[in-house]
Model the fold of this input.
Amino acid sequence: MKSKLIHDADGGQTYAVILETGDEVMECLKSFAAEKKLSAASFKAIGAFETATLAFFDWQEKNYHDIHVDEQVEVASLTGDIAAGPDGAPAVHAHAVLGTSSGRAIAGHVASGIVRPTLEIILTEAPAHLRKRFHPEVGLALIDPSL
Done:
């Protein structure tokens, strides 16, 4: 993973974060967020994965069902946010739309993704802080703007 600060103004910073073959996207984003002490940020990315695991949240069961993607795919869209989790550590939340060689799209919550050959992320930090709070009725920690 390589990164470069590309904009710094009004308390917010924008970074280009470039992942290379073999990098795992969620590990890299979590590591970058911890290193920069991010508590409010959004990101978008394009590139490709050699394999990935997406997930679908089952509302009735209150858990995720994995969607395994065991082929080279284009990352047509990857978007997400970073907020302070209930424990105060940065929590990364991302969704992606992946395109197969046949043009089929696969979408969902990003659990993992192994980059090949690159993933180009533009990450923008906000000057305000966001925190997540666990919602028992949902079964997830969600951003709560009142915190």
User: Anything to note?
Assistant: The two ends are 32 Å apart (CA to CA).
